[in-house]
Design a protein that fits this description.
Elements: H1 2-21, H2 29-33, H3 41-52, H4 55-68, H5 74-97, H6 102-109, H7 112-145, H8 148-152, H9 156-209, H10 214-224, H11 247-257, H12 260-267, H13 272-287, H14 290-293, H15 295-304, H16 314-322, H17 328-363, H18 369-390, H19 401-408, H20 410-425, H21 431-456, H22 463-484, H23 507-524
Length: 526
């Protein structure tokens, strides 16, 4: 029954995605890479949320909350503020310029060399880190949930390979042959399923804690585990409270405002109004995120702390113990959708970056749109196969790899954010300043975290503080160069008129409400 429910829901998503996208012109760059610039608010919000949510986040954050409590909700709630910043500040400028990729803006603002460096950094991050990690964690989750080794009589290693390639092949079909709209539509359906399924876990868990009463479960948790409900982390925690005002917000703005795999959904908006509404809707739902990716870990601690030896076992254990058997297949299907989403979204963005920023620029300047899409798809197939081969070997990597990824990503996230912020806020800073800023950011951060940190150990500043320090330092370097060697003319972002950039009239008051809710949440749990 579990397998039948799983297959039925997965096929339903595929059929709906096919019918929703069959009329989209996939031979044009806008049609393939940006869904014909036709996405509406609901689709944008659903795709944003499911692109973000995957097994490493659902399992990982609940594992951290099992150990540390709700302080790890910073990764979720502060994302809402970053989306507000993106909707108000970044998206209007992106859509005004009619850009397909973030590096395309960097070319307009600086030069082709800056665009190439940024595209290379994005692609290397997706190729070496993101895609293999998503495949590995997803393959591991599916293998464990369905007990594939026992079901097929194979080893755990063979099971991992089987699940990784299954996810990789299905994800590649969506991302490479369906284009962004197929990815976004499937994301939206799965997002609805994930919201329903994800909310069922804490509800059933609280019912167990409260002996059949939801309110009783909440009351018992907060009374008996008060230390788990403090939002401000201490200096020794994974997220010290001070980092919220330094690198944490920078990471969030980079992720939601400049990361190609995420912002591509908003770039595909029908108009600015739909894009802003989509971001705000996603922000509201993101505030509720801790209910799915933080609270279950605390519930698991209350119920099974003596049975769980590894924190990352908290969420799977809770699911196995509290979810009725009849719902396991449905939940596995939406979790599979979340895994698939993160993989195919990153893959689609990689195809876009290669086709638009690399192939057309450096391999065939006269290529028409159909050729660009075709070559992008070929690169996507290569990238998918490479990541599917690499992913299973991550099982042999050192422990703590997933927690380490947030730190490693700083090598390219903060440098790219730096040059985008300076690019929008100034008019005379030249291209050479951007190149120096981005290379300085990569080199200095790498030296800091991989050379100096091992020497100084626990006395070394938290990596989020290091990000903030280098962000300010590199901005000052760029401004100094701009003062000494300014551009000969002011930069002006031209309006391409590809979409209507009339702002949603409620975007500012709604944004203010979202920020106030986040602030109140921290005050309440203080």
């Amino acid at each position: 029954m579990t397998i039948i429910t799983f297959i039925a829901f997965t096929l339903l998503v595929a059929v709906i995605s096919y019918y929703a996208t069959r009329k989209t012109d996939e031979t044009s760059a806008d049609g393939y890479f940006l869904g014909g610039r036709s996405l509406t608010a609901g689709v944008i919000a659903g795709s944003l949320l499911l692109t973000n949510l995957s097994t490493e986040q659902i399992v990982g954050l609940n594992g951290q909350s099992f150990s540390e409590g709700i302080l790890v909700m910073a990764w979720e709630t502060l994302a809402a503020i970053a989306m507000v910043v993106t909707a108000l500040f970044l998206l209007p400028r992106y859509l005004k310029g009619g850009i397909t990729t973030v590096p395309t803006f960097l070319e307009k603002r600086y030069d082709k060399g800056t665009k190439a460096i940024a595209s290379g950094l994005f692609l290397s991050g997706y190729m070496v880190v993101l895609l293999p990690i998503v495949l590995y964690s997803g393959g591991l989750a599916i293998s464990t949930m369905f007990n594939v080794p026992e079901a097929f009589g194979i080893s755990e290693t063979a099971s991992l390979w089987l699940c990784v390639w299954g996810i990789g092949i299905i994800g590649s079909i969506y991302a490479i042959f369906g284009g962004l709209k197929a990815v976004a539509v499937s994301d939206t359906i799965n997002a609805i399923g994930l919201l329903i399924g994800g909310m069922m876990i804490p509800i059933f868990g609280l019912l167990v804690v409260g002996d059949g009463s939801l309110s009783g479960g909440v009351s018992r948790l907060m009374t008996e585990l008060p230390e788990k409900f403090i939002a401000a982390g201490g200096k020794s925690s994974s997220i010290p409270f001070a980092t919220i005002f330094t690198g944490m917000m920078l990471v969030q703005v980079f992720y939601w405002g400049t990361n190609q795999a995420i912002i591509q959904r908003a770039l595909a908006a029908k108009n600015l109004k739909e894009g802003q509404k989509g971001l705000m809707l996603a922000a509201f739902i993101k505030i509720l995120g801790p209910l799915m990716v933080v609270l279950p870990g605390v519930i698991a601690f209350y119920l099974y702390k003596d049975q769980i030896s590894i924190p990352d076992q908290a969420y799977p254990t809770l699911v196995r113990e509290v979810l009725p058997a009849s719902l396991v297949g449905f939940f596995a299907a939406v979790l599979f959708g979340a895994i698939l989403s993160s993989f195919n979204s990153a893959l689609n963005s990689s195809v876009t970056l290669f086709g638009v920023d690399i192939y057309r620029e450096y391999f065939n300047k006269s290529a028409d749109e159909k050729t660009v899409v075709k070559k992008g798809k070929l690169f996507g197939i290569f990238l998918a196969l490479a990541s599917m081969f690499i992913a299973p070997f991550i099982a042999n990597a050192p422990a703590g790899l997933f927690g380490y990824l947030q730190e490693v990503n700083g090598c390219y996230s903060i440098p790219i954010l730096t040059i985008i912020v300076v690019g929008y806020l100034t008019k005379r800073v030249p291209a050479i300043a951007a190149k120096i800023g981005i290379l300085s950011g990569v080199i200095l951060y790498s030296i800091s975290q991989f050379v100096l940190k091992p020497i100084y150990g626990e006395n070394y500043p938290h990596f989020l503080h290091v990000m903030a320090i280098l962000f300010v330092f590199n901005i000052l370097i760029m401004l100094l160069i701009g003062k000494l060697y300014p551009r000969s003319t002011d930069f002006q972002l031209e309006y391409t008129k590809q979409v209507d950039i009339t702002a949603w009239k409620y975007v500012k008051p709604v944004g203010l409400i979202i920020v106030l809710i986040v602030v109140f949440t921290y005050i309440y749990f203080q």
